[in-house]
Amino acid sequence: MTAELVRGQNHALPQTRLEIRVAAGTPVVAGATLGDENGTVRGTEWIAHPGSPQLPGLEVSKQAAADHRLAVDLDALPATVHRVTVLLALPTGGGGPLRFGAVAAPFVAVTGLDGDEIATFTLTSLDSESAVAALELYRRQGAWKVRAVGQGYAGGLEAMLADQGLPGAAALARSIQEAVGRAMARSVAPPPPRTPDTGRTTPGTGPVPAQGGPRPAEPLTEPAATINYAHPRRQTSAPPPPPPAAPPAEPGRPARPVAGDATGWSMDERLYNQIWGMFEDLARTTAAYRSAVDFAESRMEKELDSALSDPRSRIGGAGDRARAEARAKHDELTARAREALDRDLAQLAAESDVVEPALPAAFARWDNPVWHAYRVPMEIPMALRLGDLHLPEKPDLTIPLLVRLPLERGLWIDSGRTSSEAAALLDGDRLRGLAMESAVLLAARLLAVYPADEFSVHVIDPAGTAAGALAPLVRFGALATPPAPGAGGVSSVLAHLTRRVDLVQMALRARAADSLPPDVDPAEQLLIVNDFPHGFDDRAVTQLRYLADEGPSVGVHLMMVADREDAAGYGPVLDPLWRSLLRITPVPDDHLADPWVGHAWTYEPPRVPPGSRVLEQVLARVAAARHTRR
Predict the structure, then answer these.
(1) pLDDT in tens, 584-604
(2) What DSSP element (H or E) covers 307?
(3) pTM of the predicted model as reported, rounded to 2 decimal places
């Protein structure tokens, strides 16, 4: 049962791996400090904040957002830590509210890894405060508890940090707000404001999921990439519109699924949350099945070892009977587990059959009829579909892989040979061609879901090998400039985008976003790099790494089409680049690792149906809308 705390109240924590979820209704900065037995924060290395989001046992969001998910592992904290205090602050310099009294009361929930709430706290009675210590997790006599604090500070983040005994509080507060400002740089050219009926709050970090994240999305690891398992089931001070009522269920049967049967302010947000709910349900039911099978195998082995260790069982038919009984119990357990799995999979398949046709263009496959009625949108959607995910227990049950927009990290389409069976059947040239085709489809989708003239695409193709794949983008004038060939083209495009990143960052630091030079395109920028590292010298490689690190926060995004082996000569110098990108593949590949339940999800790239002209139709409408705007 969830404990609804009031200020000063505490509650025992039944587990040590937790999530702390924040719903504020307006973008806030979320952080946490570690305190010793006296509650003292010993130094800046004891605080997690957007500029330094990870500490042992603790991870916070990298930017201001209306919704946050902080990951806490109390067992992984240093032994000298006895207190974790969760801090919230309003960002400065972004034109937002200056005091918590002007916004809805923030809501904080402590949950287990299964999403079940342990304790909640609504921070009421705040007025002139612009920073607040929301709650604290503390260790008392070897056990951890949570206490609702709700201590506000009119002096803002600096006053709150100073009150915790942190040396250099003023300098640290400034650095935190600067880091938040860099992450909010994409607001230089914001989309039109959204209303409660059609829009949503500013997305936090979180594809895969969930990049979905999620807990934000973890960095890539080899050989598997970690996907965002976050499912933002928002809680707000005002109730969202109710989901559609489900048709009555037949007696003894589960309720028939309904598209949009989740919380959210708009149908798109309800569908987004429903998709991540389906992802979680599929992960959990598969994990339960695999666990039951493992248990059955282990139990059978133990029973056989026990029976056969007795010499008497080897005389006559006792041993055979023991083996038969152990096998029968094993088969019974696995059959019951499979029956439960099949029941859950059937329900999820029925839900998928209802949800897929109802998806908006940004969430839909290319074969969805929604694309035939496509119109260039007036605002960006909350997420974009990168492909599909499935598990081997039911390969035909696919879950859309959605990432939040604007993109928070670059993409790497791996054109090299992977361990997948599909890649093994293709030669290198075919793999590289499919990788570039995937890049074009993703670029076209991004162009389609952004308003006209709010998204620009650049291409570096040093050897000209991508001419065929790029033909649709070139034919409809979708590229900002022609594909850049050779080393000279590489240098020119990188210099142009690096200059844009520098100018926007300087404008944000000076709080003069409106004073950018007229030749700086305020639209979001996507750079597609083909055949890396061909045509790149050391300077160009450094600039590329700079764009990967600094670009997303100011609206410059990277899409690499590359085989990592081709760049092996650079050694570990490029490791940070590969880790910063979300790796996807041009053919099905089970490289996406789910750290929560240990699954390896198979990723399937998007494809246009054979013979379909949907891509050309969409690009033609994008081109027409751009021509009208000009």
Answers:
(1) 999 999 888 775 566 789 999
(2) helix 267-308
(3) 0.63
